[in-house]
Amino acid sequence: MNASAKSNAVHRFIGIPTAPPDSILGLTEAFLADKNPSKMNLSVGVYKDASGQTPILKCVKEAERRLIETEATKGYLSIDGLPDYREQVRSLVFGDSIDAGRIAILQTPGGTGALRVAADFIVAQLSPARIWMPSPTWANHPAIFAAAGLASETYRYLGSDRTSFDLAGMLEDLNQKTKPGDAVLLHACCHNPTGVDPTPEDWKAIAKTVAERQLIPLIDFAYQGFGDGIEQDKAGLQTILEAVDEAIVCNSFSKNFGLYSERVGSVCLVAADSETMKAAQSQLKTIVRTNYSNPPRHGGAIVATVLQDAELTTLWKQEVDEMRQRIDALRQQFVETMKTTGAGHDFSFLLKQKGMFSFSGLTPMQVDELKNKHGIYIVGSGRINVAGMSEAKMDSLCQSVASVL
Q1: Catalytic residue (choose from 138, 173, 234, 316)
Q2: Contact assessment for residue 86 and residue 266, using Cβ atoms and an 8 Å cutoff
Q3: Residue from 48, 234, 255, 371 carrying the catalytic annotation
Q4: pTM for the complete prediction?
Q5: For an engineered disulfide with 135, which of 21, 146, 154, 236 has Cβ 3.0 to 4.6 Å away?
Q6: 76-308 adopts what CATH topology?
Q7: Architecture of domain 21-56+312-404
């Protein structure tokens, strides 16, 4: 193009507004730019060890060593991903509780990718279904559903004290506001952002309502092993699946395998029979093909390698137990240390919460003061990533929190 023609060009990108920063990832950008030497990032949900690093699990290192030695191709995977990976997901998430012929499993780029595929499927095949989300929920849930064009509503989840589960409020909302065919988002364990989970009896009541209202459960299973244990954390999911014939489960191996950057997840659709499953599976594949075409190999191959080997599986379970136990210890240490600050605020309610996150009850103003005065970054809702705390910095953290109460 000559200079004259270029000078007359209409620039269509001029005037595009700057998008607001992500409520969580944007905090990391601010954290990285902060010059405070004692800064602490408790916003993004990643596990950190005592040295402040996000470690690579020993079982993952060994699996990668084997893969490097034996890998023979970098060719495309099929649309639904590695067969060995999908079989291990089926076994880990569902066990023998459901006929494998009723479950369609597609490997996805992380749990986020799984949720987007699920949302696109609901819009394409189940419209005009809405999805009902707990209030609060993970900050990216509503954004994912909105991007897919899936209408969303909320149901009550926390009680008025902002520390306990409001079962009565949840059931009232689902019974009075939903329509048959609507989807309902459920966190299988380690509710994000609150860490507040239903009890086994609560799950039975939820399952009964979901079945009676003819709702489609969309179950987000991102933290298996971080609540009570790998098998124990399936209890709520299993209770729901005992009550209904159809469900969608989105799982992730970011946390329990430490594969954050490898983006390893899956979307699993449970149908009433194998023929229905095959039809739904074909539609899920169409969605994937027109989005990212097929999933990445490496992370899925790591998971499959570990779970196919008895010795590596045992090591993995030990490492998950160690991470969970350390998170529980950090939560306990925070509660006990806060008692020594003289702030007069009892954080014992945190001990009932499970998983990486705790809903602290801090106000947005207090959160802002923590960031600006002390270099401590947490989400505006007051969600704290307990897995990002440090034993060595616990006194400093608690003194900072006490100063803003």
Answers
A1: 138
A2: yes
A3: 255
A4: 0.94
A5: 154
A6: Aspartate Aminotransferase; domain 2 (3.40.640)
A7: Alpha-Beta Complex (3.90)
